[in-house]
User: What shape does this take?
Amino acid sequence: MSTAHTVPTERYAKVIEVSKRVRWEIERDVIRGRPFDYTKTFLPSGLSLVNELEFMRAADQRLLSQVQGRTYAYIFGLVERFISAKVIALSQEHVFGDQVAFEALVRMTDEEIKHQALFRRLEEMMAADMPAGYVMTADPNAFAGVVLGKSNWAVLALTLDIELFTQAHYRASIEPDAELSALWKDVFLFHWREESQHAILDELEFVAENARIGDAERDAAVNDLIALVGAVDGILQAQAAADARYFVDIASGSYSDVQVEQIHAMVLKAYRWQYIVSGVSEPRFQKVLFPMLDEAQGSRIQNALAPLTYAVPTQPMPMPMAA
Assistant: This one.
């Protein structure tokens, strides 16, 4: 069954209209010849959690926010590799049907490819400015291969989750912070403008996929989603360890072995908050996902997430997380 028979064309048409209106280009609109300002914070404390390391001087808290910001850009580029591949595959469901839906998904693919180029450009800039030694621990193509080997239902659930927390992070934490690097803030303003439309398409396609599959397929897909969360957490664990080592090597302060362990634990907590816990707790995501599940399936997901739910800020977010 095609989603074109169950989803009004007007929903896709509205996404196209907004996509055309907010369209931007990397150099012309976002970077505009500007460098990053390293006297400023990159990731706000509501995401980086650097304020929880009370023994750390302000200058090193700012540096750690910049290291985390570099990883924030890298991880977005990584996940958008599988998202663009999945969306172009999904567009084939509409290729000989609803041409408006087809155009909306093709436009989304184009924008996701542009986002990958943006994050590669940011990495080039940060690599030129920051000390050597930063390591990216996961290969985007290898991770995409793992993700795309799972069911459409699970991949769409993960994709919706990512694109909703992108919005929530911007609205709740990045937008209100006047102390961030101006270029960094603009990157995620422009990213948010397009991702807000992508989340609409993700939800449409996810709901349609859920209607297509039967109970047994959905039950297996829940296991796939749990496995994907585990795969994401594996990447976060490796990257947190690498980033903590890199930060300690380049920081101005000297830290004891105990403090180094605390830095590593806090970076991992921050990454789990950014990429897992903030997403699964986002109200719109919960409203879409959990009505699809029976009680046992919902419990399986909650139990799988339980070891990660500690990863929340000690201070509340300055705005509601809802996107």
